[in-house]
Design a protein that fits this description.
Chain lengths: ~350, ~350
């Protein structure tokens, strides 16, 4: 890829137990997760993780509980130290940082949003939002307008003097997001940030995040166990299972080319019409009679609504007005059928 | 003749016994035996076999020490370390004497019409409850009316000083405990011992170490007894701090000091306050027993009631202590509830 990775994780291993370094040799020699647990009482949390997270993109790491996704995100700001491997932030190996350097990085380079919000219950909303500058020791005149600005941006203007327990869950997480934004860090780590919220509020928060992301272009690492959420937010999707990366790619590509049965099962229940975009199933232009034009970012659902259920005919696909391909409605219907792992149909 | 004579002989220790005869103190049983010309041991039945204790073995072989020598040994070893211990402990604990005496002087020197309003103001500041202020006011006026004002104020002064010392010492110890596993492993047995040791037992070594005229004697006894809950609950409170909040503090780059003062202690405050409440209650319990070693206050009146069989004096003073306990408990609980309400989570 031509883009430059903001965060690179290289050959990362994490073993939980009393003597992880000794176990590391066994793992390198090829011992499995199950055998390591039964014979040696150590848990292989992550094995051989290699992920590049691009600047300005949202990378979603998804997997079921116990797949190691929360462990993985905590390696990025070193809340957890790996057993082996490297974590590079803009090419700098975080694992070589001493505690001062690490603290400086946490204060200026990255912020974090937590599943259960993790606000300070004894501080009011404004003080919570301004946590990062307060920790840095900035004078209150310099951060106060900033904190108020972000609080307003997440829709909580007027709640400055409330305490976290006076707010609903959704509002508390808005405070959590405002707190992360006030730190002005280029990287935002979000650990199951919306998982504890009601479905409707969750959708609101996802829209808020997308809107903010369009404007701010932060490097976001988002952890989720909800595939719909992952597909909605992700520029790059990493599927984790038992500490291993099963597949990572652009979400559309994963949907159309699942690598194995695990991924097939994973994506079996999602609404493909809503998630798949025209650009993923269009063909190079080869004829000149079209029923109409569609944008390449339109979802298949949009196209079906446009045709009124008629599956014959051909649409011209455009990007910002320029013609980029054609869409056969028969291909559209085929794309709605679940994909098997063995399918090798080209998607682009 | 003693029961184990034959055993000693069969082991071939008879010579050693007579050569090494110890000169322990003569026990009452020995004296009785001598006067009664005891010779019945030879035909003791199997059923009456005595346990081979030190005293029993000593009867057969005088080289073996008596139990009395063991308690003597404990006593002597304590007496031998007493002087060096005193030279170390005396200066360290001196501030406690000053604080107890100073506070006592201040409380006694101020007239009642100054002290009672001050108390009421403090109660209002801590609880913001007029009902409690009224209850405290009525209780004090009642105690003053039956001429128990002075002992009540003395008891309060002692509790005030001892609780302050307990908090100042106990909270840091609790913090250390919460941070280090080995520290906790070392301290928990000591705390268990302090809590279960009969209260009178504290007094015995203290009487040897310090003069009964020094107020720190009872101060130390009270603090040793009452400091335990504040240590335990500080430790508990800090360990119960939400892991995710602590992780957030970490993720936003807090230093250890920032984490302690901006996150851990504020979030542990409800538990610490509960510990302070317990500490106050326990020092109130101990202040009565401490009257045995010259602690002034209501305890002295209770003691007088027991010593002179003055039933009424003892009961009224006891009632006064109950009243103080209820007051202190309600006031600290109300203050605790305010702290809780301010930081209740979801």
């Amino acid at each position: 890829m031509s883009k430059n990775p903001m965060i690179s994780i290289r050959n990362l291993y994490k073993i939980f137990g009393d003597t992880p370094d000794k176990m590391m040799e066994l793992v390198r020699a090829g011992i499995g997760k199950e055998e390591l647990l039964e014979a040696h009482g150590h848990v292989l949390g992550l094995q051989d993780i290699n992920v590049d997270m691009q600047e300005g993109e949202t990378t979603v790491v998804m997997g079921l509980s116990g797949s190691g996704k929360s462990t993985l995100i905590r390696h990025i700001n070193r809340l957890i130290d790996p057993t082996a491997g490297e974590v590079l932030i803009q090419g700098d190996n975080v694992l070589e940082y001493d505690s001062d350097r690490l603290r400086a990085m946490r204060r200026s380079q990255m912020s974090m949003v937590f599943q259960h919000f993790a606000l300070l219950p004894h501080r009011n909303v404004l003080e919570n939002v301004a946590l990062a500058p307060i920790v840095r020791g900035d004078p209150s005149e310099s951060y106060d307008p900033e904190a108020r600005h972000w609080l307003e941006r997440v829709g909580l203007a007027g709640y400055e003097d409330h305490y976290p327990h006076q707010l609903s869950g959704g509002m508390q997480q808005r405070v959590g997001i405002a707190r992360a934004l006030t730190s002005n860090a280029p990287i935002m780590l979000m650990d199951e940030a919306f998982s504890a919220l009601d479905p409707l509020i969750r959708t609101d928060m996802q829209d808020l995040l997308l809107e903010l992301q369009n404007e701010l272009a932060k490097t976001i690492v988002f952890i989720s166990h909800d595939l719909d959420e992952a597909l909605k937010l992700a520029d790059h999707l990493v599927i984790l299972k038992d500490g291993l990366v099963v597949q990572q790619d652009e979400p559309q590509h994963i949907l159309l080319n699942p690598q194995d049965d695990y991924v097939v099962d994973f994506i079996a229940d999602i609404n493909r019409a809503r998630v798949l975009r025209v650009r993923s199933i269009m063909d190079p232009i080869s004829q000149d009679s079209f029923v109409g034009d569609v944008d390449q970012e339109a979802s298949l659902e949009d196209v079906i609504a446009l045709t009124g259920g008629d599956t014959s005919g051909m649409y011209r696909v455009t990007r910002a007005g320029a013609v980029v391909g054609q869409l056969d409605l028969k291909a559209l219907v085929r794309a709605l059928v679940r994909t098997k792992a063995s399918d090798t149909r080209r998607a682009f | 003749m003693a029961f184990y004579d034959k055993l000693i002989e069969s082991l071939g220790l008879a010579d050693w016994c007579s050569n090494e005869a110890s000169t322990g103190p003569v026990s009452m049983a020995d004296l009785l035996k001598q006067t009664q010309g005891d010779d019945s041991a030879a035909d003791t039945s199997f059923w009456d076999t005595p346990f081979p204790s030190l005293d029993e073995l000593n009867a057969a072989c005088s080289a073996i020490p008596k139990t009395r020598s063991v308690t003597d040994g404990v006593e002597n070893s304590f007496l031998s370390i007493k002087d060096p211990l005193k030279t170390v402990l005396d200066p360290i604990t001196q501030p406690l004497s000053w604080a107890l005496d100073g506070s006592m002087w201040l409380f006694e020197a101020l007239p009642w019409f100054v002290v009672i309003p001050i108390f009421l103001l403090v109660v209002y500041w801590a609880t913001r409850s007029l009902a409690l202020v009224g209850f405290v006011g009525v209780s004090f006026l009642f105690m003053a009316f039956i001429d128990h004002y002075l002992p009540a104020i003395q008891t309060l002064s002692i509790i005030f000083v001892c609780t302050s010392f307990s908090v100042v010492l106990g909270v840091p110890i609790g913090i250390l405990m919460s941070r280090s596993r080995s520290m906790r492993r070392a301290l928990v047995p000591i705390l268990d011992m302090l809590q279960t040791l009969p209260t009178f037992v504290y007094l015995i070594p203290l009487i040897f170490l310090f003069s009964v005229t020094e107020s720190k004697l009872y101060g130390i006894a009270i603090i040793l007894y009452a400091i335990v809950p504040v240590i335990r609950l500080t430790d508990l409170g800090i360990r119960l701090v939400d892991k995710e909040v602590l992780e957030a503090a970490h993720a936003f780059g807090m230093t250890d000091r920032q984490k302690l003062f901006k996150v851990q202690i504020p979030l542990a405050l409800p538990n610490i306050m509960a510990g302070v409440n317990q500490t106050i209650m326990m020092s109130l319990a101990m202040v009565v027993i401490a009257s045995l070693v010259s602690a002034p206050g209501l305890g002295v009146l209770v003691l007088r009631g027991i010593r002179n069989l003055e039933l009424g004096v003892g009961l009224v003073a006891g009632l006064g202590i109950v009243l103080l306990a209820v007051l202190l408990d309600r006031v600290t609980k109300a203050a605790l509830a305010r702290v809780n309400a301010a930081q209740k989570q979801q």
